[in-house]
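Input chain follows. Return structure tokens only.
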Amino acid sequence: MVATMSSSWPMRYQIAAVPYIIDKSPGKLQLLLAPVLLSSLSCDTLSVFVFSLLSILYPNSNTYTMASAARSFTRALRTPAASSLKRSATFVPRTTFAQQARRGYADAAGAKKGGNGLLIGGLVAALAGGAGFYYMNGAEQVKAAGVFTPKQEDYQKVYDKIAQLLVEHDNYDDGSYGPVLVRLAWHASGTYDAETKTGGSNGATMRFPPEGDHGANAGLHAARDFLDPVKKEFPWITYSDLWTLAGVAAIQEMQGPKIPWRPGRNDRDVSYCTPDGRLPDASKEQKHLRAIFNRMGFNDQEIVALSGAHALGRCHTDRSGFSGPWTFSPTTLTNDYYKLLMEEKWAYKKWDGPKQFEDVSTKSLMMLPTDMALIKDKSFKSYVEKYAKDNDAFFKDFSNVVMKLFELGVPFETEERMTFKPSE
């Protein structure tokens, strides 16, 4: 009987099980069994497995670069483009990889010599060859095996897929993943520093610690996981473009304005992660808001317009520490956020959590100190009043400032933007 294993096993058991199961299985099945076992590994486990091989083959190389190569190679194996990747891997000097991999594997795991050892060595070499090709040549050269230049209709298909999933997956806050997708795009873009030209949506570095673990990004794994099927179906789109396009789709699908968008963002490795503290701290007030947004190049009017995104979603005690929605319709974008700021009476919430405000009439809504700062400051308040009276003016300014936010720091090759048709 052929031994089996489960991807639910702990990572260290999965990695150890591959050579063991091959060794204990009937000889004639071993050649077929090896790729089956590898495909049964979880994506994270396979990535660690490949990273370990690269560490053996390139002991003096940059750890972050090897980790990025391992992740890219693993993702490619999980996509329809994997067959072209395998063909590309044949350009690697396989003999060298096989010799080094067999020697490294024997040293690391104590593999015995013989037919099974050669099979395992060959299996390891195949993995190392593909990953090594990624490491030495980069994923872009692998993509070149089948040149594909996406057009607007291709991006519309990505948009449509996101819109479809928003309808199908209604088991998140208030029945929609829309608000958390907007938050993902916002936080991926809001790290930009105009002085140092670092951060911003170009890179999608929230995929890695430490940036993914920053307190301001707590809970955003839900949005990233939501988009995994989209990335799998459209492997040609970068995470950086996907996240911002998802933000556009979410805004439009929640009855917001159309947001002009253009592709051209490139994914980067962990070395490009931004330091903590670049995103707004909700417990602060006017001075902090201006410091954060002025760093990105926004003025007072743009700060207030961007704050209108708080019409969507809610806060969670297990993430930010705050709790509750800002409006009565947290999955629909309107100017209600500004209306409520101006028309409702707000008082400190009596609870054990951080300082926040609640509406006096229903005690079901909340505002953060940064929200209340918008009506304490004379300049900010003038724009709150404007948007509370005119939803069209809010939509116009919101569209422009979101477009600007999503493009900060991106070296685009084209000035042409596209707009997307919302679902019906």
